Amino acid sequence: QAERLAAALSALNDEQRAAVEHGGGTLVGRDERPLLVIAGAGSGKTSTLAHRVAHLIAGGVDPQRLLLLTFSRRAAQEMERRAGQVLARVLGLKSEKPPALPWAGTFHGIGARLLREYAAHIGLNDHFTIHDRGDAEDLMGLVRHELGLSSSVNRFPRKGTCLSIYSRCVNTRAPLADVLAEAFPWCAEWEAELKRLFGAYVEAKQQQNVLDYDDLLLYWAGMVAEPALAALVGARFDHVLVDEYQDTNLLQASILRALKPDGRGVTVVGDDAQSIYSFRGATVRNILDFPSQFSQAARVVTLERNYRSTQPILDVSNRVIAQAAERHAKTLWTDKPSAGRPQLVLVPDEAQQAVWVADKVLAHREGGLALKSQAVLFRAATHSAPLELELARRNIPFVKYGGLKFLEASHVKDLLAVLRFAENPRGRMAGFRVTQLIPGIGPATGARLLDAVDQAADPVAAVRGFVPPSAARAEWAVFAEAYAALCAPSLPWPADVELAVRWYLPHLDRLYDDPSGVRRGDVEQLARLASGYASRERFLTELTLDPPEATSDKPGPPSLDEDYLILSTIHSAKGQEWNSVHVLNVVDGCLPADVAQSAHELEEERRLLYVAMTRARDHLHLLVPQRFYVTQQAVRGDRHLYANRTRFISERDLAGFEQQTWPPPPERPPAVPPPAAVIDLRNRMRAAWS
Ligand code: ATP
Ligand code: MG
What we know:
Helices cover 44% and strands 13% of the residues. The chain has 690 residues and is of the alpha/beta class. The strands form four sheets. It has an eight-stranded mixed sheet, covered by helices on one side. Helix 3 (45-58) crosses helix 4, helix 19 (443-455) crosses helix 20 and helix 20 (459-465) packs antiparallel against helix 21 (473-487). Mean pLDDT is 88; it is low at 550-557 and 632-636. The structure holds adenosine-5'-triphosphate (ATP) and magnesium ion. Magnesium ion (MG) binds next to helix 3.
């Protein structure tokens, strides 16, 4: 095995290997310091982490005792796959599946699991359901309404703004007054009302046995702030490893510290130059301060060799980030052979931009690049609309990440609400949605039913015994039977989903116009997805926390074996790479976005462009439409802007690009001088009739 291990690690460079083997030396010289790998894009941080996981397991660490925290569930699965590959080589496995990583996931997903497991210790009911952003906003709106803040007081912040303020307080652990002063100054006059609102919102969540996204971190942090529980939970894991550490927030850092106060077994990797989530409360301070966060100082490893991109791509990317104000200086180099300079392409507008990109994508495919190895990246999910039209017109299949999610479609939400209501009868958001699907039941009746359920010891009996207006009685009886079946403990998963679908489909047909069958297709797709999860609770939790984020031109999430072009927001493209990358709308007003005003916000926009550019392996194309359509918040309306190239690429940086203007300016025909004499056509006109 030692030989195979050496072979599996032989591709690593010295620094990567040091990080992989950290702490694993002889007992005498054992290094138990926490480990930080801080390094630039494409330097192999994620692969180093995957190798480290494999190395640990090969060295005898039980996979159950590895906690691996990633940015998305997709990233966790990718890590599992990569670690599995290395491990299979080390263990000399051929076809056997290497051990899975049961504790690989996002902070939120792992938080949900731990909270359920330890619910009894912290006063939670383990059947809690989780509110996604939409549910959380709706509940905030409802509570606001109940407090009389929406109707009687005009100009009170919208429910979405209220939730953002609340969320920022939670994630940055800052007092309300500070958050208002810093980020929401126009809401500062409502401090007292907001405080009352948030108090009532917290009570409503507890009453209904629901947690929102932020609660998953907040309760987790609260749980491990209790020394006895911290010891209990921390002792389950020998190693805690975190990828993309630059995008964690203070709560997440505090969880890590509480789990492993001396930092033993803690490994984090990240790149401060790629920190792009401060709008959600993430702070780059976490990674910069990491070395001194534990009772023993951390070991810091830096990686400088880039394995992803060609030197010309690195050159232009390095120049974009070089002007950043605060950063851990890094220089990246590569010896990857280059396929020419990256392109900077001027196009007239977004429609022409779409045409150019579609042409180029097809040209790359002709040249042997599968669609899947190409991606188109953009600042905001709406920016790909013209391209989506163009791709559809040419029958180029695509999948879009980061846009309107599959789960946000109302028919999908309907079906999930049925399952949620069965999982947690006290969850009013789901319950209310279900009642409103039944003809003859309005909001008042719906609320009356939920009150009855709330007060009853047995929710099924309350639903059965409920007497709606006479027009709704027959349908209600049908629902009550389906609901009783869904709540029966003997029902094997995923039979619940089939049952719910059977009840729901007639309502779908009645409620929505669905001639193409797309909605039915989605519902059936959801039923198929369900079989991949162990239980109803896991299905609902994981779907809510990390939904299949892709939408494609076909209903439901895509299957993996098809070839399709990737469309993604830059935020969702984090950590990934493609052979060819197009970045749309590299203009001022978009990158940086026109809403970014402060120096701090502008810096984040710069990092965002850096993240986009460093996704490319061989080909990078930056598109600069000269007319760009923006929704300007300031003027409350849409308008076209004559756009300029992004300010992050200076005149001097242009030398690094191959510049192109498309379509090429028409050549002027040579000027022909007019004849010297006047030819009076009027004479001829008269002559024709004489
Ligand atoms: P990002 O900052 O974008 O998350 P990263 O630092 O995590 O990037 P990886 O995604 O791990 O970088 O690696 C980038 C690419 O380099 C991958 O294709 C990976 O397989 C490759 N790579 C990493 N290390 C080596 C190595 N020692 N030899 C060859 N290829 C490597
Ligand atoms: Mg990575």
